Each structure stands twice: as structure tokens, then as C-alpha cells.
Amino acid sequence: MVAVRAPLSEYSCLQWAAWRALAAGVPVTLVHSVAPAGSLPLEACDADVVRAGSSLLRSEASRLSSGFPTLQVDLRLYRGNLTQALIGLSSNASLLVVGANRVALAPDGVQDPVVLGVVSASLAPVLVVPPGSRGVGIHQRTAKGHVVVGVDGSAQSFMALTCAAAEAERLGAALRVIMALKSGSAESRTLMNGASASLTTLRADYPHLSVSWIVDVLRSPVHALMRHSRDAVLLVIGRHGEGAKAGAKLGSVTRTLLSHLPCPTLVTTLPPPVESTVGDALFTEYPTDAGHGIDDGCRTPHQE
């Protein structure tokens, strides 16, 4: 599922979603939201707002169809908050794709509330695509690119390592594993031993994958990941923090990386320990002016 955030959405974000959907053999769902009627200015026409949202989705679907003619595209238009809609949809999604606001990468550190909100509470992995990012297609396999993943011995980072290996193989890229450690500490030795065991398992599962392991003793985890992923096609990190509930706080490493994206960044999530209560109560699907939900089997023209 990919968020359509006019005028913030960029085609590179839609491309990533399309390539991942094709790789997985599933449809891509474009999601857009419109403001509740009660929050519109007095001079605004509610029906016009809904029609504009529907038109935007169909326009983006047509653009995707021209570039990916075999891709099945579904459309969903919701009334209310886009962040809450995406969180609610995440329980049934294999991946959420969100394009970052350009302001999120500004030197003053302004952060994108939609990106932070979705990553904080999503039950599915979230791919955040910075503006102007060069897309990497599954049909454009190249050994020159690499996927970067940060590991720190936690369950979250082990999940990220496994996911990064699968992504690297899918893209035909090399895998670069980054650990930021304090040299000579007992904790560092423990982490090194654990990481070594994980990499041994990884090499057995992906025998043809080119894997490099970098231990950075000069930089903090944030600066190490930013330094070693500046030329990466993808950065994979595990979500740290409270997680899996609305309003959860992200760990400082995750939050900082999301506000200074060095490249497209995939944030992995651990399965929730109990059944999630995040669901349809957070958002309402809104019918179009034709009297039908835009989700009611709508497809791009080539699929009719």
C-alpha cells in the first residue's frame, strides 16, 4: 500500500511500491484521504473535495499503469486522517510505502508527522522514500548497488538483518552490515559474537549473496548508518521504541534517520505480542459521488 499525498507524493515513491508489488505478485493499493466535512472552510463544497480526491487517485493509477502495464492497481479513498487510515490498514498489508515531505530533510530538523506517525504504529514494515530518490526496479538488477542494514544485537535488528538480506537478493545488490561499537568493551565483544553467529546463518540461507561486515568504532549508530548508506539503494533498520500502538515513541536512532533520510529506508517491525486493536475504528472509507466506495473493485482501465 502506498500513500498518495498530493502535492507531496512523488513518482519515485509510487515506483518503489509498484516494483515491490510486482516482486511479491500482489496488487498495489493507492491510499488517499480527504478532510472531514466538518473541518472544511465554509466556502468549500464537500462533494467537490471528494471528487478531487477520487480524481487524484485515478490519475496516479493511470500514470502507474503506463509504466507498469501488468500491475494490478487498487484505489482507496478515506474520510479523515491519512496517518490513522494507514495504521488501520497496516494489519492486512505486507508493506506500507510513504513518501517523505521535502521539509523533513531540511537542516532545521523539521520532521514529517505522517512518516513518524505511520512508522511509530504500523503493524507492517514501512518503506519511507525521500523526495527525488532514484528508484531501483526489480528488473534493473545491478551488482554495483548495495543494501545497508544496522545491527545492535536486539531482536529488532535481527529482523532487520533477515529482511535486508531478502531485499538485497531481490534487487541483485550486495549487503552491507553495520555495527557501531565502543572498542574493547565487554558489551561490544558480546554483540560481536552474537552478530557473527547471525551472519553465519545468513550466509547459509543466502549462499550467493555478497555480504560485507563493517564495525564502526568511531561513530555513533546514527552517524555510522548515515555515513555508510549515503550511496546505498536501500537502508534497512529495525523499529526501536514502544511500537505497535498509536502515539508510540520511536527510538532516537530511528527518529533521527527518518528526519535525515540518506536514501530510501525500510523500517521493519516485530509482530505484536497480542492481537492489535488498531483497525477500522480509526478511519472511515468514504463513498464517491457516484454512490460507490472507490474501493469497490475499481481497477485501472487495462484491467477491465
Q: How many angstroms does the end-to-end distance come to?
A: 21 Å
Instruction: Provide the spatial order of strands within the biggest beta sheet.
Output: 4-5-10-9-6-7-8
Radius of gyration: 20 Å
Class inferred from helices and paired strands:
alpha/beta
Runs with pLDDT <50, length 5+? Answer: 242-247, 273-284, 286-304
* Helix share bin: 25-40%
Oligomer designation: single chain
Number of strands: 11
Share in β-strands: 15-25%
Mean pLDDT over all positions:
78
**DSSP helix count?**
8
Biggest sheet record: 7 strands, mixed
Order of helices and strands: EHEHEHEHEEHEHEHEHEE
The best one-word shape is elongated
Q: What can you see in these coordinates?
A:
- By secondary structure, the protein is an alpha/beta fold.
- Helix content is 35%, strand content 17%.
- Strands 4-5-10-9-6-7-8 form a seven-stranded mixed beta sheet, sandwiched between helices. Strands 1-2-3-11 form a four-stranded mixed beta sheet.
- Helix 8 links the parallel strand 9 and strand 10 (265-268).
- It is elongated and about 65 Å long.
- The relative contact order is 0.17.
Question: Can you describe this structure in just a few lines?
Answer:
With 304 residues, the protein is an alpha/beta fold. The chain has helices at 11-24, 46-67, 82-89, 113-121, 155-171, 186-205, 221-228, 252-259; strands at 2-3, 28-34, 73-79, 96-99, 126-129, 146-150, 174-180, 211-216, 234-238, 265-268, 284-285.
